[in-house]
Automatic annotation (TrEMBL):
GO terms for cellular component: cytosol; dendrite; microtubule; microtubule associated complex; neuronal cell body; synapse. The lineage of its organism: Eukaryota, Metazoa, Chordata, Craniata, Vertebrata. InterPro entries: MAP1 (IPR026074). It comes from Amazona guildingii. GO terms for molecular function: actin binding; microtubule binding. This is MAP1B protein. One of its GO terms (biological process) is axonogenesis.
Amino acid sequence: PGNTKVAKSTAVPPGPPVYLDLVYIPNHSNSKNVDVEFFKRVRSSYYVVSGNDSAAEEPSRAVLDSLLEGKAQWESNIQVTLIPTHDSEVMREWYQETHEKQQDLNIMVLASSSTVVMQDESFPACKIEL
């Protein structure tokens, strides 16, 4: 009644896990939409991490840390590959600071030196076999 506001969460609600082969982390890996619960529930062999805007905190360090925390709660230690779409300072720092934990959790960060050239544009690329 009156002026009551209900907070709406955009994060994944609790529930049973969903298993997928490939997941694009939504909203440029922004922490407003992706948290530990996302990684506890949305379990994938490959996660694509987008975002190359440090002013907008993309990709978010909190999202990358949430991957580690969420994956640590999985019952099995299946291999997970993280595929960044851009080289960023956040990604490099996170990789270096958490490398040992990544290894313990069987998480591999894929770096690609391959480039695709189409018409007048070139961009980094990697091949994923499912």
